[in-house]
Amino acid sequence: MKNKKYLFPIFTFILSFGCALFVAIKVFPNNPFTGKSKTEKTIVSKFKDGDLIFQTSESKQCEAVRIATNSKFSHCGIIYDINDKWFVFEAVQPVKLTPLEDWIKHGRDNKYVVKRLKDDSVLKPEVLQKMKDYSQQFDGKEYDAYFEWTDNRIYCSELIWKIYKNAAGIELSKLRELKDFNLKDPRVQKILKERYGNDIPLEEKVVAPSDIADSDILKTVVDTY
Q: 41 Cβ partners below 8 Å, 6+ apart?
């Protein structure tokens, strides 16, 4: 009989633990960021967790971005290793993780450039995980076609700038204002007119893909152009 009095608390603990585990799985059944990247890969890759990737997209808005920024780049994202598979976390409609191979196919002629911190030793596993955890708040959000510096909606270069700044403490580039860009081209003016009418927010804080791509704290590790 003495042994039986210990069975109830043990059974209660097991039941409680099992219920807690079930609740955790139920609440986050499809969380794309829960996968852990391995510290060592069996196959050497040209990519690294946290790399930044840039491409030229084909839409009219992306064309306007290239003209306004005097750059070939109009779209960018951050490369994440999740369960030994490469994804690009990108701000499109909606913000999402895209398999790297698919992301590359979306660019003009499948061309892309990958940039990495010159001193990437700062991206320790715990920092990379913090970046992924921070990224979750943007997953599924709407793309920001108005380029507002808020977290309600978000655009591509704003997304990766904020991830590095707020999760890793690294400022990839200086912020600029909309009026700092080349807004005189008719194609750019057409997009601005469609977006804002006559009330263009010229002093809105902005970061362009080219600002990050040209950052002096980054180096090019892959260039297929």
A: 84
Here the tokens at position 120 are: 């990437």
Work out the burial of residue 115: count CB atoms within 10 Å of its CB; fewer than 13 is exposed, 13-18 middle, 19 or more buried: buried
Query: Is the same domain home to 75 and 5?
Result: no
pLDDT at 35: 59
Give pLDDT tens digits for 10-32. 334 333 334 333 333 332 235 66
Distances (CA, A) of 182 to 34, 58, 142, 186: 41, 19, 26, 10
Ramachandran angles phi, psi of 140, nearest 5°: 90, -5
Domain-located, residue 5: yes
Total number of domains in the chain:
2
Residues of the chain with pLDDT under 50: 1-29, 37-42
Other residues' Cβ atoms within 10 Å of the Cβ of residue 96: 17
**Does any domain span residue 35?**
no
Whether 117 and 157 share a structural domain: yes
Query: Which structural domain, as residue segments, surrounds residue 20?
Result: 1-29
pLDDT number for residue 117: 98
If one counts every other C-beta atom within 10 angstroms of the C-beta of residue 78, the result is 22
User: Does one domain contain both 101 and 185?
Assistant: yes
Do 98 and 20 reside in the same domain of the chain? no
Q: In what order do the strands lie in the sheet with 52-55?
A: 96-99, 85-90, 75-82, 52-55, 113-117, 218-223
pTM score, whole prediction: 0.81
